[in-house]
Amino acid sequence: MSAHIGVTGLAVMGANLARNFARNGYTVALHNRSAAKTDTLLENYGDEGDFIRTETLAELVEALEKPRRVLIMVKAGGPVDSVIDQLVPLLDEGDIVIDAGNSHYEDTRRREAALAEKGLHFVGIGVSGGEEGALLGPSIMPGGSRESYDSLGPMLEKIAAKYDGDPCCRWVGTDGAGHFVKMVHNGIEYADMQVIGEASDLLRSAAGLEPAQQAEVFTEWNKGPLSSFLIEITAEVLAHQDAKTGKPFIDVVVDSAGQKGTGRWTVVSALELGSPVSGIAESVFARGLSSQRDQRELAQDILAGHEDRIQVPEGFVDDVRQALFASKLVSYAQGIDMLTAAATEYGWDLKLDEIASLWRAGCIIRAELLDDIMKAYADEDKPANLLFAPAFAAAIADAVPAWRRVVATAVQLGIPVPVFSSSLAYYDGLRRKRLPAALTQGLRDLFGAHTYRRIDTEGTFHTLWSGDKSEVSAVDTH
Ligand code: 6PG
C-alpha cells in the first residue's frame, strides 16, 4: 500500500494535519526527526485511519505514491531549508513538496524557484486555525504552481473547514502567494485582537465594567455584525477565573504580548509596498510597547497624564461596539489594500472574493463580516477600497459619530486606543479633499530640490528657493 501523502514534522500542528488527512480516508506516511513522536501519534491515534510509520526521509519518500506529496511542518526558517535539502535528492520530477508552516513568502518564492529548476513543485500553504483547526478543518491558502494544485488541491479541500459546504481552500496564486495571504491574515488577526483589547480597556477603565460583566457584553456583541471567533473567545477568556487566586484570569496574566513575527512581516512588507496599513502597524507596535516593561515601570513616576475628569457619554458601551466594528472594518480594508498592491508587485492574480471566502471558516479571523466582504468583491464592479463598497460605506458612516465620541473620550481620559484612533485617522485621511502632503512637498523641494507637481499644469517643477523664488520645470524626483 502506498501513501497518498507524507508528513514530516509531527509536533502538534503536523500531527493534527496528518490525523486530519487520515480521518478523511487518505493513507498518510509519517516521519519525525525523532521516531518517538511518530510512535506516540500511532499509539494514541493509530486507529483513526491508515498510517505508515517511517524512520528516515528516504523511507518516507519510498512509501509514497507518485507524484509524491511530502508535507513539511517544521519551524519556519532554517529548519525548512534543511528538510528540503535532505528531501530533494530523494525525489523525482513532478513530485510536490509542501511547506505548511508560517514561512515568510520571500523564502517561499526563493524555494519555489530553486525546486522548479529541478523539476519539482514547491507549494507554500498558509494554514490557519491553530491546533484544533489543523485537526478538524483549517482554512488553507495554497500557493505554488497551478499544476501542482490539480494533484494536491482535492486533498487539501477535503481536510479544510467548510462554510455552507464550501471548502475554505482554494489556490490563491503562484509561488509565495499562499504564504503572503496567510501573512496578511495574521496582520489582520493582530489588529482584530488589538481592537478587542482597546474595547475591553475602555469598558473597564471608562465604563467601569469588570471582566465578568464584559464577558456578557462581548457575548451580546457576538450576536450582531461583530459576530466572529475572536469575539466569541474574548467572552470566554474574560469570564475565566484564576483557580489559584479567584481573580479574573486576565488580572493575573503579565500584560506583555508576545509575537512570533508574522504581524511584523506584514508591516515590513506593507512599508515596502507603500500600502498604508496603519491599524495593523499600530497593533504590532502596541505589542512592542506592552513588552517594554522596564520603561513602562519607570514611566509610572515620570510621565504626567493630566487626564480630564469627564463623564463618559451616555450609551458609551454601544459606542465602543460601533468603534470596534468600524476599526475592524478599516483593518480588513487595509489588509485587502495590501493584497491588491502585492498582486501588482509580484504578478499574482489574487481574487479578493475567493480570499475572503477562505477566511469565512476555520481560520482565526473567521467572522460573519467576511461573507459580506466576499460578496463585495464578487461584484462586477469591484470597489477600489473595501470601505467604498456600498454596504460598508453605509455601515461605517453609521458608526462614525460613535467612533469619534469614543476616540475623543479615550484621549481625554488618557486611555490609549492606537488602532481605534489611527483607523479613524485613516478614514478621515481617505475622505479629506486636501492633505498636508502639499506642504511636505514644498518642504522637500526647499531643502532637497525634490520637485513637485502642480494641480493646474502637467509636468514637474522646482522653485528656486534660494534665488528669486521663480519656478522652473524640473526632472521628476518627487
Ligand atoms: C493561525 C494563527 C497562527 C498563530 C500565529 C500567530 O492563523 O492559526 O495566526 O498561525 O497564532 O503564529 O502568532 P503570534 O501572535 O505569536 O505572532
UniProtKB/TrEMBL annotation:
The 6-phosphogluconate dehydrogenase C-terminal domain, residue ranges: 178-466
UniProt entry keywords in alphabetical sequence: Gluconate utilization, NADP, Oxidoreductase, Pentose shunt
Catalytic reaction annotation: 6-phospho-D-gluconate + NADP(+) = D-ribulose 5-phosphate + CO2 + NADPH
Pathway: Carbohydrate degradation; pentose phosphate pathway; D-ribulose 5-phosphate from D-glucose 6-phosphate (oxidative stage): step 3/3
Pfam families: 6PGD, NAD_binding_2
Source superkingdom: Bacteria
UniProt cross-references to InterPro entries, sorted A to Z: 6-PGluconate_DH-like_C_sf, 6PGD_dom2, 6PGDH_C, 6PGDH_Gnd/GntZ, 6PGDH_NADP-bd, 6PGdom_BS, NAD(P)-bd_dom_sf, Pgluconate_DH
Keyword NADP: yes
PANTHER family: 6-PHOSPHOGLUCONATE DEHYDROGENASE
Described function: Catalyzes the oxidative decarboxylation of 6-phosphogluconate to ribulose 5-phosphate and CO(2), with concomitant reduction of NADP to NADPH.
Family per record: Belongs to the 6-phosphogluconate dehydrogenase family.
Annotated protein name in UniProt: 6-phosphogluconate dehydrogenase, decarboxylating
Lineage per the UniProt record: Bacteria, Bacillati, Actinomycetota, Actinomycetes, Micrococcales
